[in-house]
C-alpha cells in the first residue's frame, strides 16, 4: 500500500522537474538578475543595485515607445485577424465545391515558422531585388509604410488560425435555430446577431486571448524583417529586451524589462479572465 501511494508521486516527478526547469527557475533567476548590475562580460560577478534597473527601464523612452507600438500592433492585428477569420468561417460554412481543398490551402501560412515568413517577405519587399518593390516602384519597408506592412503580414499568416477556430465553432450551432428563425421571418443579419454571434462568443474570446498573447510577444517575424526599424518604428518590447541583452549586453536591465513586461501584461489579462469565468 505504501509503495502504491508513493508511486503516484514518482510518476508526476518528471513533469514537476520540467515545470520547475522551464518556468519556476527562469522566473526566480530573472528576478535575481533584475536587482543586480550584470553584463555579459561580468555575468559571473553580479553587483547588487536594488531597483536601479527598473528605474532605468521606466525612464527609458525607447521602452515606452516599444510598449506603445506593441499595444498598437497587438490591437490592430488581433482584431483584423478576428474579422477576416470570422468572415471566412461564415463563407465556408456552406456547401462549396472543393471546400476541403481550399481550406487546406488557407491553412498553409500558419504552418510556416514566423522567422521564415520574415525572410520570405524581406526578399519580396527588398528595395533592390524585391519583385513587390519593383512593381510598386517603392519599398514598403520605409517609415511611411512599414507599420501597416508588418501588421498585414501578421494578419496574412494568422487569420487562418482565427478561421479554423471559428469555422469549428459554427459547426456547433444547431441548424434548427436557423430554421426556426426563418419561420419567424428573420433575415440573414438578424440570424447572425441573435443566433450565430451569441453561440460562438466563447470561441471569439478564445481567439482574442490566444492571438492577443501571441501578438504581444511577437519577435521572430519583425526582427528578421526589419530588426525593429527603420529607426525604432517597429521595435516591439520583445525586440527591445533582446537588444538590451545581446547588443547592449546589459543582462540586468533586460531582466528588469522582461519582468515589467510580465507585470504589465498580467494585470489586464487577469481582469479579462476573471470576467470570463464569473
From TrEMBL:
Q: Name one Pfam family in it.
A: BPD_transp_1
Topology of this chain in the membrane: Multi-pass membrane protein
* Cross-referenced CDD domains: TM_PBP2 (cd06261)
Domain ABC transmembrane type-1 intervals: 67-273
Which residue ranges does UniProt annotate as crossing the membrane? 12-33, 67-92, 101-125, 145-170, 222-242, 254-273
**Where is this protein localized, as stated in its record?**
Cell membrane
- Does Electron transport show up as a keyword for this record? no
| UniProt-listed GO biological process terms | transmembrane transport
Which keywords does this Swiss-Prot/TrEMBL entry list? Cell membrane, Membrane, Transmembrane, Transmembrane helix, Transport
Q: Which GO terms describe its cellular component?
A: plasma membrane
Q: What is this protein called?
A: ABC transmembrane type-1 domain-containing protein
Q: Which organism is it from?
A: marine sediment metagenome
